[in-house]
Amino acid sequence: MKNLDAAASYEGGDPAQIGEALRRVPEWCRAAYEAGREFDLPHALRHTRRIVFAGVGHAAAAGELMRALYVRESPLHWNVWRDYDLPAFAAGPDTLVIIASSSGNEDEPLSALEQARQRQCSTLVICPPGTPADRTTTADTPRLWLDQNCPTHLVSLWHMFVMLGVLGKLWLIPDPHEHVDEAIGLLVEVARGLGPDTPTARNPSKRLAGQFVERLPIIIGAGPLAPVACYWKLQLHHLAKTAAACDEMPNVNHGAILGYTRPDSVWQKSIVVALRGPCDDARIAARHDLTTTFMLQAGLNQDTVRAKGKTTLAQVCSLAYFGDWTAYYTAIMSGVNPAPAPTLDEIEH
After folding, report:
1. How far is residue 167's CA from residue 76's CA, in Å, rounded to a whole number?
2. Using omega within 30 degrees of 0 as the cis cutoff, is the peptide bond preceding 93 cis?
3. Contact assessment for residue 127 and residue 146, using Cβ atoms and an 8 Å cutoff
4. Which of 95, 147, 216, 306 is 20 to 30 A from 112, alpha carbon to alpha carbon?
5. 18-175 domain in CATH 3.40.920.10?
6. In angstroms, rounded to a whole number, what is the distance separating the alpha carbons of residues 262 and 49?
7. 4 and 333 in contact (C-beta within 8 Å)?
């Protein structure tokens, strides 16, 4: 295994300098939010009653994060759609279909865009310039271009902050400006504390990556942190090229918990990580405590990562960014190139 405190591990193991890109995530998030706030949008979109966020991979992960942040306080019907076409309820101008594409080439959001036009939905396209998603967009379709400096497997938070800007400007969500300021300030703090220059003894992300090597990580979250657990899984797939799983509390206590001790050979090669934060409901916190006790008594590999921040947005961002760094270090320690894999280009379209 590679030494995460040795510069040589990054010089040879990260030729695309994904670590340097990770350091820039806070500035990209700020730029994305400002781009969303400044974007010229039709006033009629303020009458939106339903949002369908059509995308796959990292774009879909951003939609899930947004949905989890606002589903309890917004009257909007919010749906994340990863399939072809659109759900039956998506029809008419009061349905806003956000076509989000990290590469601009994926079949699924392109299919959703075509059907959104047929059903006369309102649309917003977020994609890289010059791609099929860009070229098929008509002149009357609002379109935001993805920041081309941001690697495709680091764009989830970029997409989320663009939507915070856009939907906040339309008053479809409560004005997020103060929460955004706290969240981005916290991302800067996280980058400083978890970067490669911080030694393993003071870097919890490096230490957790050491537990992930040659084990199956199973990430658990609840409420707004449930899609963060899924995001960690996605990043472990993309950066570390490893298997991972995720689950959601309290549903863990109604099925999955029964399988946590059998067979022993599986759990010896696994580790369960609970993502927790102040945004957890008190009942969820109690379930986390009981589940952790059960796992420790059963001799399972178990750990907890706690979110930072006062607002739910800041807590979601701090844990998502922690997951980015952990997946990156898992790749470096395992001798795996964290750059985007060409295999996806062959099967995505």
Report:
1. 11
2. no
3. yes
4. 147
5. no
6. 46
7. yes
- Residue count of the chain, please give it: 349
Cβ-contact 90, 52 below 8 angstroms: yes
Calculate ∠ Cα 287-292-297, nearest 5°: 130
d(CA 280, CA 76): 22
DSSP states of 162-178: HHHHHHHHTTSS---HH
Could you give the CA distance from residue 328 to residue 121 in angstroms, rounded to a whole number? 39
What string of DSSP letters covers 6-67?
-HHHHHHH-TT-HHHHHHTHHHHHHHHHHHHHHS---GGGGG--EEEEE--HHHHHHHHHHH
Q: Is residue 218 packed enough to be buried (19+ CB in 10 Å), middle (13-18) or exposed (0-12)?
A: buried
CB 154 within 8 A of CB 321: no
Model confidence pLDDT, tens digit, residues 48-79: 999 999 999 999 999 999 999 998 888 889 99
Q: Going by CATH, does the domain composed of 7-13+181-334 fall within 3.40.50.300?
A: no
Tokens (6 digits) for 324: 């980015």
What are the sequence ranges of the domains in the chain?
7-13+181-334, 18-175
pLDDT tens per residue across span 235-270: 999 999 999 999 999 988 887 777 776 666 677 799
**Residue 154: what pLDDT?**
87
> Are the C-beta atoms of 298 and 268 separated by less than 8 Å?
no
Summarize the confidence of residues 193-201 as an average pLDDT.
95
Distances (CA, A) of 26 to 21, 187, 191, 338: 10, 6, 8, 19
Q: What's 219-264 look like in SS3? A: EEEEHHHHHHHHHHHHHHHHCCCCCCEEEEECHHHHCHHHHCCCCH
Distance of alpha carbon 29 from alpha carbon 206, whole angstroms: 23
Q: Over the stretch 206-238, which tens digit does the pLDDT of each residue have?
A: 999 999 999 999 999 999 999 999 999 999 999
Asked whether the beta carbons of 219 and 256 are under 8 A apart, the reply is no
Q: At what angle do helices 177-194 and 25-38 cross, to 10 degrees?
A: 160
Does 7-13+181-334 match 18-175 in CATH topology?
yes
